[in-house]
Specification:
single chain, 448 residues, mainly alpha, 13 strands, disordered N terminus, Sacsin_chaperone_reg, Hsp70 protein binding
Length: 448
């Protein structure tokens, strides 16, 4: 029995080794699956099994095939799938954490009469376990409606002051507001301070890259109401506190923050770039203060609000628009507004002196060119009064013309030169036409 078994095993192993040695190497063709169970396949005891291979960079176990012969999904696809899985896991974890905080906050608020002692309040007032809402009102966060952070009672704000602080301080939902008798011990803020409201408006009017301005309005939901109403509530708090309650740096930051909704909520502007009265045709380059905020004009004047748009303001608006466009062609509405702003900027009064007019003509006011790009007026020419035969032969690569919508009077007032004054025509006659080498048989060197 022993000899038979040994001979059988030996012959089997030997034959398999011979078979493996004689077997040709597989071609290095990409394939998605590799076969396993080699010994079982050779002995015929069971059919080959298939297993899915991992990407080479994550494959930890050795493989019979080289890594380069295994076709897997690309690294970008794998990373995207991993990111989606991680984000879903984080959302689920955040929902569980906020739900746990909601259970604790509900228990504390419902049983505050039995748990209320000075020691208990001192212990829990600074612990961030209460779900609250922070930031632009958007889709409800995980766990409970609208809550996306955990905060402490001493750091949170009551829901009636939401419009004044939601970008700076977390706001408690109604379900987690402690009773009146416990708020003092828990140090819940009864009213927001002027500095907190100013920080809220600065955050609301921050750059789009930071989530403020038009990005904040894009996330605004109809359930939150009119954004102008929310801004008016914050301005009312600052107006009651007075400018003296703010530091100079806070006033400067408020002046530059684009927290005022304009154009029906389609854009935002800073107070120093708003006017009480501005022509509607200048939008979107210059905006008038919304009517719902005119009652706060007194405080906004301290932040740079001006009463009426002057020619100098219109020219400044054109320079700001040129800087923002950075060589981009204006859209139809922007082009119309730029032409209107130019006409307003060069609207000289009859009492203007010759020196003032000359100074304004020398200033490089941005003017739309024929392609709609705001260009300094000193680099442009206008085509008014030029014959069509001349315009058709102009080299537009060397001469930039003002846009056709810019009137001739505005071109002249802005210091734009006429193309017929800057371009001259010269007729060149081929010398080989005449019999003597000159034009029409005339002598060489005649006038062109």
């Amino acid at each position: 029995k022993g000899s038979t078994k040994g001979s059988t095993k030996g012959s089997t192993k030997g034959s398999r080794g011979t078979t493996d040695a004689a077997r040709p190497e597989p071609e290095e063709t990409p394939r998605r699956y590799v076969e396993g169970g080699e010994a079982a396949a050779a002995e015929g005891e069971r059919s080959p099994t298939r297993r899915r291979t991992d990407p080479p960079e994550t494959l930890q176990t050795p493989s019979r095939n080289p890594p380069e012969t295994v076709q897997t999904s690309g690294p970008a696809d794998a990373d995207a799938a991993d990111d989606d899985d991680d984000e879903a896991a984080l959302d689920k974890e955040a929902g569980l954490v906020i739900a746990a905080g909601a259970m604790l906050a509900n228990h504390l608020v419902d049983n505050i009469a039995h748990l209320y002692t000075a020691n208990v309040c001192e212990v829990v007032l600074g612990v961030p376990f209460v779900p609250a809402a922070l930031g632009v009102p958007g889709e409800p966060g995980p766990g409970c409606a609208g809550c996306n952070v955990l905060t402490s009672f001493s750091h949170a704000m009551l829901p009636e002051h939401w419009a004044s602080v939601f970008m700076h301080l977390p706001v408690l939902p109604l379900d987690f507001v402690p009773p009146q008798f416990a708020r003092s011990r828990l140090r819940v803020k009864s009213e927001p301070g002027a500095s907190a409201v100013a920080a809220h408006l600065v955050a609301l009017g921050s750059s789009p890259n930071e989530g403020g301005g038009v990005v904040a309005l894009a996330r605004w939901t109809p359930a939150a109401g009119d954004p102008c109403v929310a801004v008016a509530a914050a301005l009312a708090v600052l107006g009651d506190a007075g400018v003296d309650a703010l530091e100079a740096r806070e006033i400067e930051a408020l002046s530059d923050a684009a927290f005022v909704p304009v154009a029906g909520g389609a854009a935002t502007e800073a107070p120093r770039r708003l006017w009480l009265r501005a022509p509607a045709r200048l939008a979107p380059l210059a905006f008038e203060l919304p009517s719902s905020l005119t009652e706060h004009a007194g405080f906004l004047r301290r932040l740079g609000l001006r009463d009426e748009l002057t020619p100098a303001d219109a020219a400044a608006a054109l320079r700001v628009a040129a800087r923002k466009a950075n060589g981009r062609a204006l859209g139809p509405n922007e082009l119309r507004a730029a032409v209107a702003a130019l006409r307003h900027a060069v609207d000289f009064e009859a009492s203007s002196s010759v020196e003032v007019v000359a100074q304004r003509r020398r200033s490089a006011t941005p003017v739309p060119d024929s392609f709609g790009v705001l260009t300094p007026s000193t680099a442009l020419f206008h085509a008014w009064g030029a014959p069509r035969s001349l315009l058709t032969r102009l080299d537009r690569r060397k001469l930039r013309l003002a846009h056709d919508l810019v009137p001739a009077g505005s071109c002249a007032a802005a210091g734009i030169r006429a193309v017929h004054d800057a371009v001259f025509e010269r007729r060149v006659v081929d010398g080989s036409d005449g019999p003597d080498g000159g034009p029409d048989g005339g002598p060489d060197g005649g006038p062109d």
